[in-house]
Amino acid sequence: MTLQECYGLLEGDYNDVKKRLLSDQRITKFAVKFLNDGSFEGIVNSIISNEYQKAFSFAHTLKGISQTLGFTKLSNSAAAMDALRRGNNVLAQFLLPQLAESYTQTTKALQCYQNGKTSLCLNKYQRMY
Fold first, then answer.
1. Each residue of 15-40: pLDDT tens digit?
2. What is the pTM of this model?
3. What is the mean pLDDT of residues 81-104?
4. Which of 9, 16, 20, 62 is the most buried (most CB within 10 A)?
5. DSSP string of 64-101?
6. What gap in Å lies between CA 43 and CA 63, rounded to an integer?
7. C-alpha to C-alpha distance for 116 and 2, rounded to whole angstroms
């Protein structure tokens, strides 16, 4: 799988991130590092603990990282969690499954790319969505 195919799977903007980071090597470096980012888990754990301001902080971080890396779908889902800033915790809880789906889609595509899986991973992944 190429990096551009990976971005297609995660519904990202490869061309935009290429303009910022300039090379596939740099994009890969930071995209793979994203797999170790704890922002999504922080959102979930904070919402479970009713710590909504903390959840907003994690969502804001996730949105920023996603925008920088061109993960468009994930960035948009994280931006929707801005409901937490406005104190609309019920809406944020309602939007959490959409964020989880976007996060899973992004991480699965990155894992396929990182592991060098090509058609097998691509076909298996496409059936999931």
1. 999 999 999 999 999 999 999 999 99
2. 0.85
3. 87
4. 62
5. HHHHHTT-HHHHHHHHHGGGGTTT-HHHHHHHHHHHHH
6. 12
7. 9
Task: Assign 4 to helix, strand or coil.
Answer: helix
Chain centre to alpha carbon of residue 93: 18
CA pair distance 51, 29, nearest whole angstrom? 32
Which tens digits make up the pLDDT trace of 107-122? Answer: 999 998 888 766 556 5
* Higher-confidence position of 115 and 59: 59
What's 115's DSSP letter?
T
Going by C-beta distance under 8 Å and a sequence separation of 6 or more, which residues neighbour residue 110? 6, 10, 31, 32, 34, 35
Please name each of the domains of the chain with its CATH number: 3-128 (1.20.120)
> Angle at which helices 72-80 and 52-68 pack, to 10 degrees?
160
